[in-house]
Structures are given as structure tokens and as C-alpha cells.
Amino acid sequence: MDTLLMLDHLSCLVSAIRGQGNLNLITRALAAVGCEMEVIPDPTTVHFHLPNNLSVLVHREYNDFITELTNKFPHEKEGINKFYGVCWKIFNALNSLELKSLEEPLYLFGQFFQKPLECLTLAYYLPQNAGAIARKFIQDPQLLSFIDAECFIVSTVNALQTPMINASMVLCDRHFGGINYPVGGVGGIAKSLAKGLLDKGSNIMYRANVTSIILEGKKAVGVKLSDGRELFAKTIISNATRWDTFGKLLKGNELPKEEEEFQKVYVKAPSFLSIHMAVKAEVLPSDTDCHHFVLEDDWTSLEKPYGSIFLSIPTVLDSSLAPKGHHILHIFTTSCIEDWKGLPQRDYDAKKESVADEIISRLENKLFPGLKSAIVFKEVGTPKTHRRFLARDDGTYGPMPRKIPKGLLGMPFNTTAIDGLYCVGDSCFPGQGVIAVAFSGIMCAHRVAADMGLEKNSPILDAALLKLLGWFRSMA
Predict the structure, then answer these.
(1) C-alpha to C-alpha distance for 37 and 17, rounded to whole angstroms
(2) Which terminus of the chain is less hemmed in, N or C, by CB atoms within 10 Å?
(3) Main-chain phi, psi angles of 132, to 5 degrees
(4) CA 123 – CA 68 distance, rounded (Å)
(5) CA 206 to CA 208: how far, in whole Å?
């Protein structure tokens, strides 16, 4: 066995599956294992319901979205076009490059000589944040708050804390070919990838919880499972969070300096309270959109626990997911695990029902009168649920900067200070979001291939580049 891949977490809220450009990463991953999926186009990515009765639809077509936004803020037409124009500039630069590991110097040199302008564009925006750039062009406080909400969906933080490159990837990708959803639900992506890997000769072990990474000296050589079995490989890849990888799977070992630096710059983002419901179809208007973001009264509540509500109704696009005459609702809102610790089971269950009832009441008042009486099934999950079933420290959904960061400079890459151990996922460059995490996987695969001699590499240049990247991270 050459590579052992530990899959400890898989979540997908929004999936872009299309056939254009280099950022169609999920499509590329499926194609790599010989898979295709039937998809349904979504005419609107998200419907925002915001304070002061501000309602904004993010249309599939970019021009329709810009028209809607400039109609809401006609005095900011020029600023809107300039801000989103910068997003497209960054997106187009990314989309023109062959995306591989930024830790691989031969690849970087090759890309620079082929596309110097695009590489310089990305280097320029690497240390910048979306909020700072938005403020160069826009003055209206409510419009800036809307951009905060746009970025909050991307990164669970406001625009001033969201790297501009991350924001650009998501805010443009949704219009570049549009957002398309797999028939049968997003779980089909994982099933298709698993089938494709098995067909290609890989082995996937289920119900095989990894409890620790085995070291020989300072080199990772295998993993130990909860049933006591030990598996050995030349390469170990962890897509657990950095906190889980270095705090639990390598428990008792000295924390590498680069991980200490990472934890100085980033903290764990909060988890979510999730509500899965089935409702009678008649409670939803016939023109209901699939995705909604609700923040009713106060912009300052955007990042507070339970302040804003995400709502997904997949049966609007794919009616086959529910019995005839019914819809599925997935409601979620940020919640910290500290709110749920130390409660006796009876109090824990009562609190789940109480908080869920309040969230549902807000949706009933804002969007769907009679929603409560239409419920036929309901299940509530807390941050403790996310921690248990997703094996993520405190149920977190990724890293969050302690203060306004310098773009993506503080994010660690795939290599680690431990020989043979790589990390992948939302706590690696370029961070949170489906596209970003998929990009992390592509980069890691390339870097591992180079280290195993399957791709061209240069050990001398490697050492110099890794030292340079470490210096960049220290600047964050």
C-alpha cells in the first residue's frame, strides 16, 4: 500500500457540478474515477431575507444578479460593478491555471512562465480581504452589510475576515456555469466517488475509526484503529481538522511550531444547530426558492449564535427525495458547543426542542405562515451531534481568524512538520467551502505524487519553497 487516506469528515451544503473551467473540481474528481452524475440546475443560488425588508435573489445569471442588486442600491451601481469585477478578475486568474500544489516549485515556475499576469494577480490579492476591497468602492453601510452576509455564507465570518481569494471563488463560481445539484441528493457524490475508487482498485474501510497516528521516530508510518488493528503505509493523509490531527491523533506528542503558529492566528469556528424536517407541501408557495438566508431585524446579529438562519429545501429541485405532497427542510444556524455542555439528558432534550421551536417560529413569521402545523417529521442536532458523527473537535466547521487576517497568508498547506504526514481539508489552504476544500484535496494529491516520485520534483527547490511559505505564514 503506497498511500493511506483517512476520511474522517464529509459534509456538502452546496455542490457545483459542471463541465467548464479548471475550478469545476467536483466534476474533475468524479471524472478521475470514471463517474458522472445527473444534475438539476438551480435558477437561484440563494434568496437573502435581510433587515429593513431587504430581499436579494442571487440569480444563476450574473447580469441578472447585478441588475437586482443595483436596483436595490442604484447610488452604488459603480461600486457594485467594481467590487464584483475584482472578484471576477481573481476568479478568471484561478480558472485559467492548472490547479496543483502551491508547495511544488516546478509546477509554480511552469505556471508563472505560462501565465505570469494571472500568477501576479493572485499573488497581489493573496494577503487581502474581501471587506477591505469592498470598502474601496462602496460606502453604503447596508450594502457593505449585505457583502458581509455574502461572505458569512462562504466562511462563517464577515467580509473583513474573509480572504478575497476565497470570496471570489464562491461569488463567481455560482454564476460560471451555475450551481447544479445531483439527482438523489448530495450524498450521491460520496457514493459515486466511493464506487469509482473501488472500481479503480482502491480499498475503502468503513466503521474503522482512527484513534492515533503511529510514529517511528519523527516519521508517520501508520494508524491505529479503535478495534486495536494497526495499518501501515508510506504516506498518511488526514482530513481531520488540525486540532483533531495534532491534538488527538498525535496526542502526547509535542505540537510542531507551525501548528502553534496556526492556533495563534486561528480559532475553531462555531458549530451548528441543525433541524431536519418533513412538511406538507401546501405550506410552501409554488415559487419557493431552494436556498434561503434569513436575518430579520439587526445586522449586528449576523455572526451571533442563532442570529442568522440557513434554510435548504432540496425537494424544490428534486421532488423524488420526498413522498408526493411533502417537502424536506434542512434548517441550520450557528451554535457553540459550550451552550450544550453539562446538561442532564432531560434538560438537553428539552433545550433542543425549545431552541428548534424558536427557530421554526422565526421562519413561520418571516416566510411560511402555518409552518409548524405542517410538520410531519422533525429531528434536531446540536454541536454535540456534529462532534459525535463527524468526528470534528467541538463540532467545528473549520478555522476562524482571531482578528482581521492578512488574506490567506496564515493558512497552513498540506505538508506538515512530521515526515510522511499530510493534512487536507478546511483547516488547510485555501480554507472553508466546498470549492476550497476540493482544491485542498487536488493540491495534496499532487504534492504526495511529487514526493513519491510520480511527478517531477526538486528536493532543493522544495526545501527553499517550504521555508519561504513558512516565512509568509509568520507574517500573518
Answers:
(1) 9
(2) N
(3) -65, -40
(4) 32
(5) 5
Mean pLDDT value of segment 115-134? 93
DSSP 270: P
Residues constituting the chain:
476
Work out the angle between the directed axes of helices 141-155 and 77-96 (0-180°, nearest 10). 30
pLDDT at 22: 55
- Which 3 state secondary structure label does DSSP give 455? coil
Q: What is the pLDDT of residue 110?
A: 86
| Structure confidence at residue 186 (pLDDT) | 84
**Alpha-carbon dihedral 193, 199, 205, 207, rounded to 10 degrees:** 60
Using CA atoms, how far residue 276 sits from 10, 356, 376, 381, in Å, is: 18, 10, 11, 8
Q: Give the pairing type, strands 421-423 and 235-238.
A: parallel
Q: Which of 162, 238, 276 is nearest to 440 (CA)?
A: 238
Helix or strand (DSSP H, E) at 335? strand 326-335
Would you call 436 exposed, middle or buried from its count of C-beta atoms within 10 A (0-12, 13-18, 19+)?
A: buried
Task: Please state, as a whole number, how many other Cβ atoms lie within 10 Å of the Cβ of residue 15.
Answer: 20
- Given pLDDT bands bounded at 50, 70 and 90, which one contains residue 2? very low
Residue 366: all three cell numbers together: 418571516
* pLDDT at residue 3 greater than cutoff 70: no
**pTM as predicted:** 0.89
The answer to whether 444 and 237 are in contact (CB under 8 A) is: yes
